Amino acid sequence: MKVLVVGANGQVGKHLVKKIQDTEGLQAKAMIRKEEQASYFKDLGAEPVVVDLEGTPDEITKATEGVDAVVFTAGSGPNTGPDKTMLIDLDGAVKTIEAAKSAGVKRYVMISSFDTTREAIQEAPSSFSPYVAAKHYADDWLRRTDLDYTIIHPGMLTNDEGTGQIEAAEKVERGEIPREDVASAILASLQQESTIGKEFQIVGGSKSVHDAVKDL
User: Fold this and answer.
1) Among the residues of the chain, which ranges form H helices?
2) Beta strands 165-169 and 198-204: pairing type?
3) What radius of gyration, in Å, describes the C-alpha atoms of the chain?
4) Which residues contact 104 (CB under 8 A, 6 or more apart)?
5) NAD(P)-binding domain spans which residues (predicted)?
6) What is the per-residue pLDDT across 11-67, written as a single tens digit (0 to 9) for each?
7) 131 part of the active site
8) Residue 43 — φ and ψ, nearest 5°?
9) What confidence score (pLDDT) does residue 81 get?
10) 178 falls in which pLDDT band (50, 70, 90)?
11) From CA 142, how far away is CA 1, in angstroms rounded?
12) From the candidates 40, 108, 131, 149, which is the catalytic residue?
């Protein structure tokens, strides 16, 4: 299986590309914004492709051709304004969803926010509500397609070393989770067809990633 990782140069993306490259039968295609980022992924044996999420849908579609699955891990980041949030976390996500459809790629995994319900938008602080709204509508766009989708809602992300153990369910108590463990959950989701059509929250827990995802 060849997997296009959108947002590969992000922290979750880097973990995921490495895990894919370390897994027999999987190959990563790393979608990045800048040519100078390519060497890191080439050293892992992954295939880098330079595409800006603010570019045209055709550019993203071209990057999507020849893969078996798309994982959206991109984000505008905490230091940008609502304008970039809309362009990356919403429009960028929608463009990759449409690119997958155009390229005939059925499998799509979305990394969302922990809670993207309408209530979460209303309750979020003003500085955070645009991000929650962007994720809400990107998730909804994906649900309305006929893609084989999975939507993962991680808790508060940390840079701690992964434990390999999580809690995963439709609803879990808020908590933290290392970015490395999020990447492991993405990988497990790609490997298990039972996650198709499902969405779930994940935080640090006591069950192995493989078993937690399998038991959903």
Assistant:
1) 11-21, 38-44, 57-64, 82-84, 93-103, 118-123, 129-143, 179-191, 209-214
2) antiparallel
3) 16
4) none
5) 7-192
6) 999 999 999 999 999 999 999 999 999 999 999 999 999 999 999 999 999 999 999
7) yes
8) -65, -25
9) 82
10) very high
11) 21
12) 131
Task: Write the CA distances from 115 to 24, 100, 195, 208, integer angstroms.
Answer: 33, 25, 19, 23
State the DSSP code for 161.
Answer: P
Q: How far is CA 166 from the centre of its chain?
A: 17
Measured distance CA(162)–CA(82) in Å, rounded: 31
Domains of the chain: 2-214 (3.40.50.720)
Measured distance between the N- and C-terminal CA atoms of the chain, rounded to whole angstroms: 23
Residue (of 41, 106, 97) closest to 74 by Cα position: 97
Tokens 């809670």 sit on residue = 115
pLDDT band at 194 (very low <50, low <70, confident <90, very high): very high
